[in-house]
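Re: that chain you flagged

S.,

Sorry for the slow reply, it's been a week of failed gels. I finally had a moment to sit down with the sequence you sent. For the record, here it is as I used it:
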Amino acid sequence: MAPLASPPLPSRATAPRFLTAPAGRRHPRLLNPPRPASPLLSSARAPCSATRERRRDTVRECSQADAARPAPLLKTLSDLKDSCWRFLRPHTIRGTALGSIALVARALIENSHLINWWLVFKAFYGIVALICGNGYIVGINQIYDIAIDKVNKPYLPIAAGDLSVQSAWLLVILFASAGFSIVALNFGPFITSLYCLGLFLGTIYSVPPFRLKRYPVAAFLIIATVRGFLLNFGVYYATRASLGLTFQWSSPVAFITCFVTLFALVIAITKDLPDVEGDRKYQISTLATKLGVRNIAFLGSGLLVANYIAAIVVAFLMPQAFRHTVMVPVHAALAAGLIFQTWVLEQAKYTKDAISQYYRFIWNLFYAEYIFFPLI
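Prediction finished late last night. Pasting the structure tokens below so you have them in one place:
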């Protein structure tokens, strides 16, 4: 019978090396093997390094954001500039500046041989003075119309709380003083008296106890006088005086004065169209509150169309004084645009947005007349 097989004893060749080590000696490589880097520690170092990198990136981004963010002083100055610009009512400034430039240009075109560079600087002073006077008139009106503007024009700086009443008073005093000083030092006593008349009319238009804006006829006459007669006559007279010439009406200047005076009447009656809600609330009597928005819009458009027809007729009656190749097509195109805008207002059912758009278009027609004036 075959003997039971016993498990083979490990041979020296196959036995593990730690079994063959002599007694009392420990193999340094096996008993104290080099310990590999712990994966846990390795992975811990990476997050620490990544965290430091992220912190550096965050600090860098915050520094860049702080550098890009405007300083408080710069932001304050920017807000103040925006409030002052809205306080000046930019659409009225554009009308004043364009009218002044157009009248000066016409006077210089008629007397081109007398032009010198000093007149350019003097004309610039005059425009600055007129803008200051414009700022005073519209500013004093906002000071006394705060409650109404909170309903009709909440975007204006005093009504919106962006400009204090004290700051507004400071601005209007500054505008009046600067404008008066410029005119008195550069344009003589007669033009200075006309300038003061304009400031006075602007004051009694808004300030109690006069507050003539409450009375439609008085309000129309003031606006027509200031923006129609005083602006055109005053600027043209001052320009001729600066050229060393006595005052003399020219046909184009007489035309633009009459045309703009009627246009100013239209602006006076249509300016109340967007303000009907506030005027009714505070019992301000205007033609718009009495006759209704639709009737006033048609009245204003009708007067302006008549104005344009008269301009076309004048061009044919006085061909020696006007360029009918400019007068006829320009005024025909402007009249057609007005008729179309009135139709748009009718189709929109006289919503507040449509009324505001119509009123802005009236002002654009006003600008256009002065733009083309030197060419007629």
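What I noticed first: Confidence is low (pLDDT under 50) at residues 1-33, 36-48.

Talk soon,
D.
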